[in-house]
Amino acid sequence: MLKRYHNVKRKQIDGFFVACATAKETGLPYDILLDSLGTEKKHPGCPRVGVVVDDMVVPVSISEEPVILSGFSFKGSAEICDWVIQNHIPLRMHWDKILDDLEILTIISHA
């Protein structure tokens, strides 16, 4: 049975909207930011999620072999990469605008 995700949290960072999946919701050590525009951005770059580490957003590629795009090393990065591997299909579907914010947050939330 699919749980309903009722609290869509959107933030605006550097002029772009993102959906925020909290650490509590995902079971990860950090909050995850999901780009709400994805491929609709003027210059989308590679598919990625943002990992909120202290006061920084660290980009991690969405793929079967995720990479920390900034090269910034942080505790728990292996766990984040494993999570991206497990969820790369729905994360990519969200990036490609097949899933909306509510749908992706429902899928990845463990709360």
Describe the structure.
The protein has 111 residues and is an alpha+beta fold. A five-stranded antiparallel β-sheet has the order 1-2-3-4-5. The radius of gyration is 13 Å and the shape is globular. It has one domain. The protein has helices at 23-26, 77-95, 101-108, and strands at 10-13, 16-21, 31-35, 48-53, 56-61. Helices cover 28% and strands 24% of the residues. The longest helix has 19 residues, at 77-95.
The first-to-last residue Cα distance is 14 Å
Mean pLDDT: 83
Content-based structural category: alpha+beta
The helix/strand series, from N terminus to C terminus, equals EEHEEEHH
Radius of gyration: 13 Å
Number of domain modules: 1
Number of helices: 3
Indicate the percent of residues in helices.
25-40%
| Spatial arrangement of strands, main beta sheet | 1-2-3-4-5
- Most strands sheet: 5 strands, antiparallel
What are the low-pLDDT stretches, counting only 5+ consecutive residues below 50? Answer: 1-7
Query: What is the beta-strand fraction?
Result: 15-25%
**β-strand number:** 5
